[in-house]
Design goal:
By secondary structure, this protein is an alpha+beta fold. It folds into three domains: about 160 residues, no CATH class; about 45 residues; about 120 residues, Heat Shock Protein 90. The chain contains eight helices and seven strands. It has a five-stranded mixed sheet with strand order 2-4-5-7-6, covered by helices on one side. Strand 4 and strand 5 form a beta hairpin. The longest helix is centred in the middle third of the chain and has 71 residues.
Length: about 350
């Protein structure tokens, strides 16, 4: 419900409310002996009811209904009964009496308990009407929010579907290249297949928070293999991956950053100082260690933005249950990461 609709419905309600009140007074022949006095008292009483209505509608109900604080709402009702009686007494028996010289109640009816009891009907009526109006508004707004979320979800699914059209075309093209190269150059066809698997993995798996460890290791194997092809097999790396990964899961593409950093800044073509990469599973934890030679005149920024982003991600996922160390010692750079494995 938008603001214009809300105002329109409230105006219609108050017009109908006033008509019903006037009709009721005509039927009961109440206060018709003095039109001016009748008009003054009824305007005052209407304004009092409108004021109490919007105290409930705009303040009390929003604080209690969404949070389901029904006890507070009941206490609010008691407060409204007392407030209504007190305000009516001040307006009619003090202010208007000083102006007109007339009491709205007989003297015997002005006893506090009787006065509160007599006004509780009007106060409860306004309280109930305001509460019904708020419930209707709350239900309509909730329904609109749900519909809006459903629409956003559909739009997101449509965008995701559109974004998959190009990758699908690329995968199909690579598969065609693979089929054509299979009988011509088996090594080239293997590389095309690895590239296709890597692109598929990056496209679909990175959206997941956790992926199977065996799939992540396969991706890293393909990544390293393609880099070795780029270096004409002059990339020297000694690696060790666990064979039995069970159904363990780790965050998607978490380890790629460290290997990319090594391939970007490390010395890769020195047979005497190869890259050492080792992953082991120990007591439901994955231990990742990597070290590589760096150029003698090179100093790596161990506090760079890449590592800060990694540490933020690790903290969000594992809080204080992970360990990350990275440092430079002489001409080699070391990384050690230990994270809990997810089943």
């Amino acid at each position: 419900m938008n603001k214009k609709q809300e105002i329109r419905y409230h105006l219609i309600f108050w017009i109908l409310f006033i008509i019903m009140e006037v009709f009721s007074d005509i039927v009961l022949k109440d206060n018709l002996n003095s039109f001016n006095l009748y008009l003054l008292h009824n305007i005052e009483f209407l304004l009092l009811q409108i004021g109490v209505f919007y105290i409930v509608y705009s303040w009390l109900a929003p604080k209690c209904v969404p949070q389901k604080k029904w006890g507070n709402l009941f206490l609010g009702l008691l407060g409204i009964l007392l407030l209504f009686a007190a305000l009516r007494y001040i307006f009619e028996e003090v202010i208007l009496y000083a102006i007109t010289g007339y009491h709205n109640y007989y003297p015997d009816s002005l006893r506090p308990l009787y006065y509160i009891f007599d006004n509780s009907y009007y106060a409860f009526r306004i309280f109930l009407l305001a509460l019904v109006f708020y419930f209707v508004k709350h239900l309509l707004n909730t329904k609109q929010e749900i519909n809006a979320l459903k629409l956003k979800k559909k739009q997101a699914e449509l965008r995701a579907l559109k974004s998959q059209l190009s990758p699908h075309f690329l995968f199909n093209t690579l598969n065609s290249f693979y089929a054509e190269a299979l009988d011509v150059n088996s090594k080239l066809s293997d590389d095309i297949l690895k590239l296709s698997e890597m692109l598929r993995y990056i496209t679909y798996e990175q959206e997941k928070e956790f992926v199977f460890l065996k799939e992540e290791l396969r991706f890293l194997e393909n990544y390293i293999s393609l880099f070795q092809r780029r270096f004409d097999d002059n990339l020297f790396i000694e690696k060790s991956f666990p064979k039995n990964t069970k159904n363990y899961k780790i965050p998607a593409l978490l380890l790629l950053h460290f290997i990319e950093n090594t391939f970007k800044h490390g010395v890769l073509d020195n047979r005497e100082e190869p890259v050492f990469l080792k992953l082991t599973i120990m007591d439901e934890y994955l231990e990742f260690s990597l070290n590589n030679a760096i150029k003698t005149d090179q100093h790596l920024d161990v506090g760079g933005i890449g590592y800060k982003n990694i540490e933020q991600r690790l903290h969000l996922l594992f809080k204080k249950t992970y360990e990350l160390k990275h440092f430079q010692k002489e001409n080699r750079y070391f990384v050690f990461l230990k994270i809990p494995l997810k089943n």
